[in-house]
């Protein structure tokens, strides 16, 4: 009887976690989950010829206690041993629920006031599009929104994506993702 009760409690807590996690969502009117990135989201350089434009993103409000958001775009398939960070955006105010297409340009003028872009693996503080090596299987590009329990992440202006990612994860309440792909 005691074993059955424990299994029921574990099952209920797992179910409620999934239901809660399902309330926070990230979508893009530009890119559908599982779809192939278009020329707009392909890097211009490194042998790639794209428009290097960040996609439009929209998300639902985060869970109670959300004070800001952060967004990352990460390619776990890059042949680096550590993946490739394509975009890191943080200190997005809690009342914001979307970014316009092209918001990740170097000027950042389409981002809400106070929002910062971290240094990507391209070495810039801007969106860097897909550019996998020729002949590789299509790479996965994971777009993730994090709801954070702090208003601002305090890192140096030239902090690495890994350091910003550490601070994001240390302060995350919830996250939501979708994945797109691209190969050449």
Please supply descriptive tags for the structure shown above:
184 residues, alpha+beta, Phosphatidylethanolamine-binding Protein, 5-stranded antiparallel sheet, 3-stranded antiparallel sheet, 2 helices, 10 strands, 28% strand
Question: Could you give a quick summary of the protein structure above?
Answer:
With 184 residues, this protein is an alpha+beta fold. It has a single domain, classed as Phosphatidylethanolamine-binding Protein (Alpha-Beta Complex), CATH 3.90.280. The chain has 2 helices and 10 strands; from the N terminus they run H-E-E-E-E-E-E-E-E-E-H-E.
How are the secondary structure elements laid out?
Layout: H1 2-21, E1 26-27, E2 44-45, E3 48-49, E4 57-59, E5 68-75, E6 84-93, E7 98-99, E8 116-117, E9 139-148, H2 161-170, E10 172-182
Antiparallel strand pairs: 1-4, 2-3, 4-7, 5-6, 5-9, 6-8, 9-10
Give an overview of the whole structure.
The protein has 184 residues and is an alpha+beta fold. It has one domain: Phosphatidylethanolamine-binding Protein (Alpha-Beta Complex), CATH 3.90.280. 16% of the residues lie in helices and 28% in strands. It is built from two helices and ten strands, in the order αβββββββββαβ. The protein has helices spanning 2-21, 161-170, and strands at 26-27, 44-45, 48-49, 57-59, 68-75, 84-93, 98-99, 116-117, 139-148, 172-182. Strands 8-6-5-9-10 form a five-stranded antiparallel β-sheet. A hairpin with an 8-residue loop joins strand 5 (68-75) and strand 6 (84-93). The longest helix has 20 residues, at 2-21. It is globular, with a radius of gyration of 18 Å. The N and C termini lie far apart (58 Å).
């Amino acid at each position: 009887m005691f074993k059955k009760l424990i299994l029921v409690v574990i099952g209920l807590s797992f179910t409620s976690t999934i239901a809660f996690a399902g309330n926070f969502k990230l979508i893009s009117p530009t890119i559908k989950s599982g779809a192939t990135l278009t020329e707009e989201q392909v890097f211009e350089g490194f042998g790639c010829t794209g428009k290097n434009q960040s996609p439009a993103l929209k998300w639902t409000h985060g869970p109670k206690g959300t004070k800001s958001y952060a967004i990352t775009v990460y390619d776990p398939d890059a042949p680096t041993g550590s993946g490739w960070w394509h975009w890191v955006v943080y200190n997005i105010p809690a009342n914001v629920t979307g970014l316009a297409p092209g918001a990740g340009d170097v000027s950042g003028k389409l981002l809400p006031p106070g929002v910062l872009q971290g240094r990507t693996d391209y070495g810039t503080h801007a969106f860097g599009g897909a550019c996998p090596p020729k002949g590789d299987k299509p790479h996965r590009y994971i777009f993730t929104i994090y709801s954070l329990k702090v208003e601002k992440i305090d890192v140096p202006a030239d902090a690495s994506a890994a350091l910003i990612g550490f601070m994001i994860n240390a302060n995350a309440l919830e996250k939501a993702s979708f994945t797109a792909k691209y190969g050449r």
